[in-house]
Amino acid sequence: MTGSPVQSIQPPAVPAHFQTFLAFDFGLKRTGVASGNRMLRSATPQRTIQAEGDARFAQVAERIKEWQPDALVIGVPYHPDGASHENTARALKFGRQLRGRFGLQVFEVDERYSTTEAIAGGAKDADAASACIILEQFLRNLP
To answer: pTM for the full model?
Structure first.
C-alpha cells in the first residue's frame, strides 16, 4: 500500500439520528480521543489513551461505555500528496477493529496536518487536540 495514490475519502451518508460521536487519532503508543455532537458541531478533548493492543481496546471500551456514542470517527493519515503510507494502513485496520469489536459505524476523516495544527495551536495534549480537529472537521461536513 505504501506510496500508492489514494482516492479522496467520500464519507458515507451519516444518518440524521446519529448525534454523538467519539473520535480517535490513532498512534502506535498513544491514541487521542475527543467527544462531540452534531448539534453543536464541536468537540471536546478527552484523556489520551496511552496503551497498545488489547489494553488500548479495553480503554476504548471504557470510553464507549462512558460516552455512549452513536458512531465513531477515526483520523486516517496520508502523505501531503495524498499517497498512503504505513500509518494509513494501521489507522484503517484500527477502524476495522473498532467496527468489529464494538458494532458501531466508523467514519474515516483525512487527518493530514491535524497534529501539526494541534501543536501550532499550543495544545498541551497534541493527541487529544488532534482528535478534536478530526472530529470537528467531520462535524462541519455534516448536513
So the answer is: 0.89
